[in-house]
Amino acid sequence: MPLQGKRALVTGSSRGIGRGIALKLAERGVNIAVHYHTQTEAAKETLAQVQARGAKGCLIQADVTRTEDIQRMFDQVQRELGGLDIFVSNARPELAAFYRPPLDLGVEHWRAALDSQAQAFLLGSQASAKLMPDGGRIIAISYSPSGRTGSWQPWIAMGAAKAALDALARYFAVALGPRGITVNVISPGATDDSVVSRLPSEVFQAIRAWHESGWTPMRRVGTPADIGNAVILLCMDEASFISGQTIHVDGGASIMDSVFPLEIQRG
Ligand SMILES: NC(=O)c1ccc[n+]([C@@H]2O[C@H](COP(=O)([O-])OP(=O)(O)OC[C@H]3O[C@@H](n4cnc5c(N)ncnc54)[C@H](OP(=O)(O)O)[C@@H]3O)[C@@H](O)[C@H]2O)c1
User: Which fold, 7-192+224-252?
Assistant: First the structure.
């Protein structure tokens, strides 16, 4: 679809990847509902940057783990933007809410992961479908490798939640296909200016060095703008027949074979 004048809700766009998505959409003239949880100043900064790109926008506060907040968020989208063409489900709680290894995982950590990803996407997609004209776009920001692997032990709850998110996207793609609404998943790799760069600096440097050593063929971590660019591609008219797919935006990291040392694999 031509993007100028379209309306998008990007959850978790106060910072990180969500902000990168909001700014790329704004560059194309999309009006943005900038959603946040607690960081009002960061959300205002995103909105200012949206407006600096010539787009309109509004701020919406909501806790996406709360069903009543999700309904209020979409009611506000309808009031402030007059409808919705693009829904990007991106928000994810801070690590402290869910990051525990399997034997220490409490129900509250489990709920924070599942409710913020699977439940928020389920309710958000249902609400979006009511606001969207035919031909709209729904995009889930996942981390799909964590839904099929088990090595990153404290990620268990979020890995399960991302697996559920990926599955939900496929079911909604089928349900909304007759209306020309596409539903896809974007799976970023390690991305700068996000939760990864807020880890202790030695951890972030180790992650960066790992990817630059060749475990990402493009030898760098991603940026929020890389993910925003992928969202733009899926929102274009030319992508109207792509639905139910997972697009890995990771410089090729997800196609690496981790069974053998990299030195052996290089020709
Ligand atoms: N970063 C990576 O390398 C990476 C890799 C793969 C996938 N991803 C996925 O990309 C998405 C964004 O990650 P990120 O690293 O950019 O995140 P981030 O910088 O930590 O930002 C998280 C966003 O979610 C919002 N949020 C937190 N808890 C919330 C809640 N309970 N209800 C509503 N909103 C809430 C935050 O709002 P406030 O600012 O108000 O707190 C913020 O806008 C996530 O789904 C993540 O799993 C990230």
Answer: Rossmann fold (3.40.50)
